[in-house]
Design a protein that fits this description.
The protein contains 8 helices and 11 strands. The protein has 271 residues and is an alpha/beta fold. The protein has a single domain, classed as 3-Layer(aba) Sandwich (Rossmann fold), CATH 3.40.50.300. The longest helix has 16 residues.
């Protein structure tokens, strides 16, 4: 069978391939900023600043493979490239260089509200989320009641998401992502929002997914969570892949580099 390409990602139909293959991946952002005008330019342009373009290399030549039915944890400091990597894997960001190969249906649970329309109701966003991962309208409608029940949002599902609290939005985003029967679930710090009851419920659902042998990619600052849930881990630093190994090995190396006390890391209850 052929290989199907979409925004720099390739959907591979073969069962022999890994769930995710990332080859020499680089992502560069182009940002603009206003230079502080000099006296001379101010006189010429009556105070209007000049704008410059700056390139930021968020990922630099990242290469790794994740076999199926594994759970990959991604660790690193703020700005290391963790969110950029999972957004590239999810197809939200196109690679500047390199290639990403995906084998299976991907469901993403990124920062709160990503992929949702805040002007639409909860029910409408359930439909939007299902259509985005390739389900038909009828298939999403068949899942809507179960998703709605899991959220426990009741009549709020008929209201626009812009009226939701952060915890309510987290419930809806999580419910949509995990009920779409993904082959690969990508989670980026999305469960740091919400009350203790939601976190416990989300934890139980994630364990259920893991028991069903789904592939998962998890970004979390809670290193104990990575060690508890993951089979593999990578450490990113300034856009560069520093290490790939077991969670215990990677976290030990990361803690040593940052001077973090391993006994001070948080657990899944703080995730």
């Amino acid at each position: 069978m052929g290989t199907y390409s979409f925004q720099g990602r390739e959907i591979l139909p073969s069962d022999s391939d890994p769930a995710i293959r990332v080859q020499n991946l680089s992502v560069t952002y182009r940002t603009t900023f206003e230079k502080k005008p000099t006296l001379k330019s101010s006189l010429r342009r009556v105070g209007r600043g000049e704008r410059e373009v700056k390139e930021v290399k968020a990922l630099k030549g990242v290469t790794f493979e994740l076999p199926r039915k594994r759970v990959l944890g991604i660790v690193g400091n703020n700005g290391a490239g963790k969110t950029t990597l999972v957004r590239a894997i999810s197809g939200i960001l196109p690679p500047t260089e390199g290639r990403i190969e995906i084998n299976g249906r991907v469901s993403t649970l990124l920062a709160l509200g990503v992929g949702f329309n805040q002007k639409l109701s909860g029910y409408e966003n359930i439909m939007l989320g299902g259509l985005a991962v390739g389900y038909t309208r009828a298939e999403v409608e068949a899942k809507t009641e179960e998703i709605a029940a899991w959220t426990e949002l009741g009549d709020f599902l008929e209201m626009p998401m812009k009226t939701y609290s952060s915890g309510m939005g987290a419930r809806l985003a999580f419910a949509v992502a995990v009920h779409m029967e993904p082959d690969i679930l990508i989670v980026d710090e999305a469960l740091s929002t919400g009350d203790a009851a939601f976190k416990a419920k989300a934890h139980a659902k994630m364990n259920e997914l893991l028991s069903e042998a789904h592939t998962m990619v998890l970004v979390s600052h809670a290193l104990a969570t990575v060690e508890e849930l993951c089979t593999d881990a990578i450490w990113l630093e300034k856009g560069v892949l520093k290490m790939y190994g077991t969670p215990t090995e990677v976290i030990a190396a990361y803690n040593e580099s940052t001077g973090v006390d391993p006994d001070a890391v948080t657990t899944m209850q703080d995730f």
